[in-house]
Amino acid sequence: MTNKVYRDSASALTGLLRDGMTIISGGFGICGIPDSLLAAIEDSGVRDLTIVTNNPGLDGMGVGRLVNSRQVRKLIASYAGENATFAKQYLAGEVELEYCPQGSLVERIRAGGSGIPAFYTPTGVGTQVAEGKETRLFDGREYLLERGIFGDLAVIHAWKGDSEGNLVYRMTARNFNPVMATAAKVTVAEVEHLVEPGEIDPDHIITPGIFVKRMVQVPDPYKHIEKRTVRQRA
């Protein structure tokens, strides 16, 4: 069996990165993001990237790393409001932005991973989202045609994985990672806990190893907190 486990994030991405490619990045904001892999992409210096993600995170965090280093040419996302640097670049015409409703975005990625080139949805009909897109009536209701998304590379984060690439996610850090793992030519996963094959209960596996080509263990990742909402102790 081919060894999927690499010694670090840089080596896990060796030979996969090139200018102008489309990268799908897991996570929701800064929760469940493949931070180590994104740092390695930043260090590689690859440019003119199209990044597909829920949102570009915060300044200097997650996908925000690549925004700060001006490696992003286009962002396809459902939200970009928390990243001031991206907002400045967009308003200055330095980066492209394709907004997509969150449900439609994840379905576009799921469709791409399933080999479905496009689908119809009522979401966005009659809004700016629909500009330039085909619409069609079904049972008297108007629907909008959305294209599936399939990337050159997907980078994702998981809580636990075995050396065959089977993955388990933890709580809200699961978010978009499972669907994004299916939607690229090559998927690279960073995992907090790496175990031997057979140590994960098959019923607990969320992403089967067939989707994961390369892995790297990141045993103690820094977990950013976007907004603290806990009460002060008495």
UniProtKB/TrEMBL annotation:
Q: Which InterPro entries match?
A: 3-oxoacid_CoA-transf_A, CoA_trans_fam_I, NagB/RpiA_transferase-like
Q: Name one GO molecular function term.
A: CoA-transferase activity
Q: Which UniProt keywords apply?
A: Transferase
- A UniProt-annotated Pfam family: CoA_trans
The organism's place on the tree of life at top rank: Bacteria
User: Which Gene3D superfamilies did the record assign?
Assistant: Glutaconate Coenzyme A-transferase
Quote the protein name from its UniProt record: Succinyl-CoA:3-ketoacid-CoA transferase
Q: Which organism is it from?
A: Sphingobium chungbukense
